[in-house]
Amino acid sequence: xxxxxxHTAQHAPHGFIRKYIFSLDHKVIGLQYYFLGLFSVxxxxxxxxxxxxxxxxxxxxxxWFGKLWPTAAAGGVMTxxxxxxxxxxxxxxxxxxxxxxxxxxxxxxYFLPIQIxxxxxxFPVLNMMSFWTTFLALIVMVAxxxxxxxxxxxxxxxxxxxxxxxxxxxxxxxxxxxxxxxSIAIFCGASLMGAINFIATTVDLxxxxxxxxxxxxxxxxxxxxxxxxxxxxxxxxAAGVLLLLDRVAGTSFFLPAGLMINDQILVSHKGGSPLxxxxxxxxxxxxxxxxxxxxxxxxTSQLLAxxxxxxxFGYKAMVYAIxxxxxxxxxxxxxxxxMSGMNPYSAMAFSVLTMAIGVPSAIKxxxxxxxxxxxxxxxxxxxxxxxxxxxxxxxGGVSGIxxxxxxxxxxFHDTYFVVGHFHMIMGVAAIxxxxxxxxxxFPKMFGRxxxxxxxxxxxxxxxxxxxxxxxxxxxxxxxxxxxxxxAFTDVEYLGKLIPVHQFMSWAAYVTATAQIIFLxxxxxSMRKGKPAPINPWHATSLEWTVPSPPPHDNFAGVHxxxxxxxxxxxxxxxxxxxxxxxxxxxxxxxx
Amino acid sequence: MSVHTEEVEHIGGxxxxxxxxxxxxxxxxxxxxxxxxxxxxxxxxMLTALLGLSIIKAALIIAYFMHLKFEKLSLFLTLFPMxxxxxxxxxxxxxxxVRIPAMRPPV
Amino acid sequence: xxxxxxxxxxxxxxxxxxxPYATNSKKFGMWLFIISDSLTFSALLFAYTYSRxxxxxxxxxxxxxxxxxFSTVMTFCLLSSSLTMVMAVHSMNHGKRKAAGAWxxxxxxGGAAFVVLHLSEWLNLINNEHVTPFxxxxxxxxxxxxxxxxxxxxxTHVVIGLIYLAIVCQAVFRGKFKAEDVxxxxxxxxFVDLVWMFIFPLVYLMSARVH
Lengths: 591, 107, 211
Description:
The complex is a heterotrimer of chains A (about 600), B (about 110) and C (about 210).
Chain A (H helix, E strand, L loop, with lengths): L15 H6 L4 H31 L6 H6 L11 H20 L1 H15 L8 H20 L31 H30 L12 H32 L11 E2 L2 E2 L8 H35 L6 H14 L15 H29 L8 H23 L2 H7 L3 H31 L5 H27 L13 H4 L2 H31 L63
Antiparallel strand pairs in A: 1-2
Helix pairs in contact in A: 2-4, 2-5, 2-6, 2-17, 4-5, 5-7, 5-8, 6-7, 7-8, 8-9, 8-10, 9-11, 9-12, 9-14, 10-11, 11-12, 12-14, 12-15, 14-15, 15-17
Chain B lengths: L15 H22 L5 H23 L7 H18 L3 H4 L2 H4 L4
Chain C lengths: L24 H30 L9 H30 L3 H32 L12 H33 L5 H26 L7
């Protein structure tokens, strides 16, 4: 029987290139992913600000629009096509390059090996390749802005025939859409590499005593997220390849005969079905949103326990809830297709299953509340963001229950109600998870503390700001405001809703500006923050036993042995109000 | 290929003879499949038979050639249930495929 | 949860400190890749099935000669190459490096024969039968689309496998790779054969011309 392979270099690498560029060290790779995500989130946010500006000022000429986009914003006025391509790229960059990378490949890469007591991931070379492949995917994606016709305009969901019929459907639907598809295909490969690494590492490289049921909940969420990625991206790759073939090889997988586009009848395709794309895409697309949220849930559990000085309420239930969410996540994709013309009996089944997935999510929420109940709560910035996650997860999740009923979705589909729902959940709750993780783990990664005052100002501005931006969207949806429209001024009943849009746009500008506080805090603290002790939060998991930042092989040659579960806070009879997982003292412990 | 009187044991239990037998079985099943293609059987029966045979062939390759029969059961249980689960789920797509011919406008 | 004082001795395979499958991580990693790629091919086969079900006038033009004979010979090549690959792993496990290298070369031969036959079949279809990804004489363009997409992606995997095996072969001859590396490459090769076990009946045999 061979021991688990640990390909870590026996000695730390030398030279700038081996240390920081093509590093095999999971910690460096984690940071590389983090900064890729940080760049992407600001790019995506800028696009959304342009969108929000245009929606309330559709006919205003802005001179630098005209300079940036001489055709698409001729005379400085954004065309609807340009709006749609900004919207497409906003969604794509945020979902793929922020939400799928930072919580999993960013924080997961950095902390999974340490939390399970390993020296590195199972496949360090594969790990490095997964980052650079993701980087390549981002380059190709951004390149779509610069080609003839610009970026695609079919949304991050790229529904054919709009995305499949070629240049005739819009300026960005030429080379732009091809680059988008190639980028996504490359991203699928990168995700697959990451998923293999995470699963193999979690199963094979846990240190002695680190049973699965002793892993911090972050490790459970990274594991289930990796499994979702392994399976989901496989199907997306198939779909993307077929759509690319439709576009460049003349096939008709998704293109039926007789389509009329821009007064021309499409004669070169026959026999395909746009519904097939929707099935394939959403079969991936639904697990994808759980990929985006699960690590945030793990981090929230970690922080709530740490900052309430209490064990997580119902650890086993939390694990089963994570597994259930992962499992059920595959069974509900049809709820994105209620209005597609699909089989209405399938719709009924998908609806029931969608309601069902609310149960493990609710269990997690109640267990978070149970964790806080009676705890000695410390309102550090990291904790504030974790509490914010719970609040936003509930708000965003509840609107999902409405959307999961086909009778209601008949009305809400393609309105701002949907936009409000997914932004609350993905665009804010998941982002709060990343903020929380940043504040929590910054001391370990950089050896310095972030500034608490700046952190709290940033938190409150952002928390209030996001509620201000996204709550009104639900009312707009109920009022019938459609989504993916570049302007509302030409429709009378929508004209009455413009003041709400103006409010939301202003809230967006203010909230976006407040993010500068975070950037300042992040970069300033890296250099000038207060030096951090080894365990500033008095937390129990393994990363708090090693120096800040950890040495190249994490544990300096020592193989940790774990004796306790991950949430031994305020254990009766213990000396301190926490017991580290590696503490050999045998106080009566839970599992 | 061994010419000794005793078979060399493969690490984990399968012998060269086992591999050869599996290979013959795979070829035989392929032959059956090809013959089936030329019988006048209804489409669904043919599809069931072909899929059934293919699954058996796949199981033989996975178990013997890929050695999974001699690994720990937990490895098999980690890998295959999730794949089978996803494949079965994708059958739901076909519920929409059968409706399409009826929904096309007349030519 | 039961309270127990944990000792240093790990009794269960899942205690940590070892692989619970009692095998190396590289093999587990390759299996994970295989599961994912199998799902990609399954999705493609479902797209094919969907296309076929939604186009009831699907042609069944593959004559016994040359199409079915060719594809049957191709199947034989791939199945035999799987056998030679198993023998390569077997030899490597018994320390017979040169024999293992020879078996890998035989595997590559089977794979190369498959590719050559396949490409000539493609050329025949395109030039003589006028079947392309976007049109064919029978009016259902998806017939060619699905055929070339499925077989093309499979062939791409075969070619990648040939390159992979070439790398492994030369490393084995030079004494650089261990038995577990050969075994992992074997898993990939068998996976490629596995996919063909489904493509051959579903794409070729289900479109055979019955007289």
